[in-house]
Design brief:
Layout: E1 2-4, H1 18-27, E2 37-39, H2 41-47, E3 51-55, H3 65-74, H4 78-83, E4 85-88, H5 92-104, E5 108-112, H6 118-126, E6 130-133, H7 138-152, E7 155-156, H8 163-179, E8 185-189, H9 194-206, E9 211-217, H10 223-229, H11 252-261, E10 264-268, H12 270-282, H13 290-301, E11 310-314, H14 321-334, E12 338-346, H15 351-361, E13 365-372, E14 382-390, H16 394-406, E15 410-411
Parallel strand pairs: 3-11, 4-5, 4-7, 5-6, 8-9, 8-11, 9-10
Antiparallel strand pairs: 1-10, 2-3, 12-14, 12-15, 13-14
């Protein structure tokens, strides 16, 4: 679903200017990487125009977050630096603040939820921050970090709601214009809005003709109701696998810029996010997290809605391996490449081997087999088998089911 804003390009930019973004770019020389931009033949064929991927998943710390964190902490007064900084994050912002603080010689304390993935906790510590695990959800973690700031005088580094953060993230937009000067459409994932707001300042100041599209997960889409209301509003219980964009309320600073400068905000489903992550891995050879795959999900959802050349921003690649495994299975199921079914067969020696032979002949890969012999629903000589198969797609699923029925099996689901 798409939510179009209804204003014209503003005469002045609120809160953050192009000069701020250019100043941040100078500050980040030698700190952040100018990440690669890679063409995608598969997406280009789908969209009918050139599609490029801006690979912030290859940035230091694995996401764009270092940019804003470094600019924000660099701007602190000497006495503020001496007091240290504190942040709350489940992953990317934590690592960005940790590395930025280490580079600048500032003490950092990062609060993370108790259930944060262990690789992200370890990486944050490795970048030099003290990690404190507090709360079961990010709101509780955020409250603990703010309490710590009040008690100790440490400066709270917000993940998106500060002009310096926005300016730092906007440096991605300057790089995109340099790398793809023929750009017509830019697609960016949106959580609190710091990234898309900074990019909007940079891109719309230099190229107001470029269409800028923000993407939110449908279960955590706070911007559509906020844009409709004309002010940031909260949504209850945002739910999505894309934790990098799971934010219940837009930031005040980025909201003003998104309202003024972003042309559309679209939403994508969990199935579309899974399919996009799978595509990035298989076709682009890019490891991305669900939030980082959200622009690709938007292209998959409505490929002909984007005038090319298109740039899709892969904002991060910090995905927990266990979550990646679940998402890939979900993505393969969404793409019709998993087939789960149950069938009845005669319970006799060799029956299961015969069944597996039929599946082998149909070129289906068996992932899991559950063989049930004792159940009140079954006859004395019957057994029930539950199968999980990997296939080549929806047509192959139908072929496998037909092959089983032709072999005399009763497929019951």
């Amino acid at each position: 679903m798409s939510y179009r804003t209804t204003r014209s390009f503003p005469r002045s930019l609120p809160a953050v200017t192009l000069d701020d973004v250019r100043g941040a770019q100078k500050m980040l020389v030698g700190v952040s990487r100018v990440t690669a931009m890679e063409g995608s033949r598969h997406l280009s064929q789908l969209v009918g125009a050139p599609v490029h991927l801006k690979c912030e998943n290859l940035q230091r710390t694995g996401s764009f977050k270092l940019r804003g964190a470094y600019v924000r902490i660099s701007g602190l007064l000497p006495e503020e630096r001496a007091a240290g900084v504190v942040a709350a994050s489940a992953g990317n912002h934590a690592q960005g603040v940790a590395l930025a603080s280490s580079l600048l010689g500032v003490r950092a304390t990062v609060f993370m939820p108790a259930g944060a993935p262990l690789p992200k906790v370890a990486a944050t510590r490795d970048y030099g921050a003290e990690v404190r695990l507090r709360g079961n959800v990010i709101d509780e973690t955020l409250a603990a970090a703010q309490d710590y700031a009040r008690e100790t005088g440490a400066v709270f580094i917000h993940p998106f709601d500060h002009p310096d953060i926005v300016a730092g993230q906007g440096t991605v937009g300057l790089e995109i214009l340099e790398q793809c000067p023929e750009l017509r459409t830019l697609v960016v994932g949106v959580g609190g809005g710091g990234l898309v707001a900074g990019i909007a300042v940079a891109v719309k100041s230099l190229r107001p003709d470029v269409r800028l599209v923000g993407v939110q997960a449908a279960g955590a889409a706070a911007y559509p109701p906020s844009l409709a209301a004309g002010r940031p509003t909260s949504i209850d219980n945002p739910v999505t696998m894309a934790d990098g964009i799971k934010v219940g309320r837009p930031g005040d600073v980025p909201f003003r810029l998104v309202e003024e400068l972003v042309d559309d905000v679209v939403t994508v489903s969990e199935d579309e996010l899974s399919s996009a992550l799978l595509l990035c891995l298989e076709r682009a050879k890019m490891v991305v997290e669900p939030a980082g795959a959200s622009p690709v999900a938007a292209l998959l959802s409505d490929p002909r809605a984007f005038e090319g050349p298109v740039v899709a921003l892969l904002s991060g690649g910090n995905v927990d391996p266990l979550l990646m495994q679940r998402i890939l299975r979900h993505g393969m199921a969404a793409a019709g490449r998993y087939l789960s079914l149950r069938l009845r067969l005669t319970d006799r020696p060799g029956a299961l081997a015969t069944l597996l032979g039929v599946l082998s002949a149909a070129d289906a890969n068996v992932l899991d087999v559950s063989h049930v012999r004792t159940d009140p629903r079954l006859g004395l000589t019957e057994a029930e088998v539950e199968l999980h198969l990997e296939t080549k797609g929806p047509e192959h699923c139908a072929e496998v089911a037909t092959a089983l029925r032709d072999a005399g099996y009763t497929v019951i689901g």
